[in-house]
């Protein structure tokens, strides 16, 4: 290949050319492929870093320098679908770590909301936090919010709204919509399975409320602009006292959590109806699914399970049907999203 042709490729195109060459030439080293494509030292380093970060290649480590890839050994080339599944699992783990960190921050906030803030550790004009256990005061705070909100209000519900509160919620939606206030509401998926709640959600959506559904909603929450937050002291106990926070320095942290959950939730009307969750999978099917998601070929799966290739094909077809997947790759993605590939899933039979 001429140097002019190599120069024409930039960035990801060069990395793609290297990846395709490595796949088509098993046993070739990275430097051999780079030489053939006439890449400079800088281009080689960039392509190597990009392929590693995407999980498409793995390089043996030089035993003389544990942090340096071995130049004389062929890299391990990973299939794109396997690399994508691994990336998805990595992002899921990051989300779980983020939620765990948020839970720890929530616990710390409870301590700060007590003696420290009341003692004046933070200037009152910047952040105000109080614990409210009187339901009347909570309702009063929400009523005052009706007229004070200026740009946006965000709701997070762990369950359905009480029947007697539905008309009032629609009335608030109309007031805010008339004033151009952005309204967002996030619900647990099971809320839409209640007929009366489903009708209420349809009416809210008609008024312009942005609605999304999530498999897991961490806590009930009300946020307004960047200055007001109302959430429970115990996310697992709806009857617990509430934390009432004012001031952007604190509310922005809760808004960041809301945005993270909002991005992962499904928009109203696009959520999967009666999503299959793999509860009917047998131990053998779960084992085959786990090995498939790990990138193991059918032949090795058959040897591991002590069955024929034909049986493996049947098992994976049954897995796809149970998960409502149109392909093996989709089955792996759904299994990852449903937690069938994590530690808990393993305990259930994988």
UniProtKB/TrEMBL annotation:
Residues 85-112 form a coiled coil. The keyword DNA-binding applies. Transmembrane segments: none annotated. PROSITE patterns: HTH_LUXR_2. Residues 274-339 form the HTH luxR-type domain. Keywords: Coiled coil, DNA-binding. Gene3D superfamilies: Winged helix-like DNA-binding domain superfamily/Winged helix DNA-binding domain. Signal peptide: none annotated. It comes from the Bacteria. PANTHER family: TWO-COMPONENT RESPONSE REGULATOR. This is Helix-turn-helix domain-containing protein.
């Amino acid at each position: 290949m001429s140097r002019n042709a190599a120069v024409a490729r930039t960035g990801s195109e060069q990395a793609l050319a290297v990846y395709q060459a490595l796949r088509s030439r098993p046993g070739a080293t990275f430097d051999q492929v780079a030489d053939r494509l006439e890449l400079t030292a800088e281009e080689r380093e960039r392509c190597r870093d990009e392929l590693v970060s995407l999980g498409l290649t793995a390089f043996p480590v030089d035993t003389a320098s544990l942090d340096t890839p071995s130049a004389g050994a062929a890299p391990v080339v990973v299939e794109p679908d396997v690399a994508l599944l691994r990336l998805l699992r990595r992002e899921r783990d990051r989300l779980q770590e983020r939620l765990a960190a948020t839970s720890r921050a929530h616990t710390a906030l409870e301590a700060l909301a007590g003696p420290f803030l009341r003692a004046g550790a933070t200037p009152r004009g910047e952040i105000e936090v109080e614990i409210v256990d009187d339901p009347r005061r909570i309702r009063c705070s929400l009523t005052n919010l009706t007229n004070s909100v200026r740009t946006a209000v965000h709701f997070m519900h762990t369950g359905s709204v009480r029947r007697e509160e539905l008309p009032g919620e629609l009335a608030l939606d109309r007031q805010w919509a008339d004033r151009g206030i952005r309204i967002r509401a996030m619900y647990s998926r099971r809320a839409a399975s209640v007929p009366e709640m489903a009708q209420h959600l349809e009416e809210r959506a008609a008024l312009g409320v942005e609605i999304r559904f999530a498999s897991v909603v961490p806590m009930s929450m009300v946020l307004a602009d960047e200055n007001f937050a109302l959430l429970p002291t115990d996310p697992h106990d709806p009857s617990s006292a509430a934390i009432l926070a004012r001031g952007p320095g604190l509310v922005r942290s809760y808004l960041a959590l809301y945005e993270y959950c909002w991005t992962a939730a499904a928009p109203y009307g696009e959520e999967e109806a009666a999503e299959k969750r793999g509860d009917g999978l047998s131990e053998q099917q779960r084992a085959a699914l786990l090995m498939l998601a790990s990138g193991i070929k059918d032949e090795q799966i058959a040897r591991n399970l002590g069955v024929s290739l034909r049986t493996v094909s049947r098992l994976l077809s049954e897995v796809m049907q149970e998960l409502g997947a149109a392909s093996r790759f989709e089955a792996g993605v759904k299994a990852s999203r449903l937690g069938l590939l994590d530690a808990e899933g393993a305990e259930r039979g994988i």
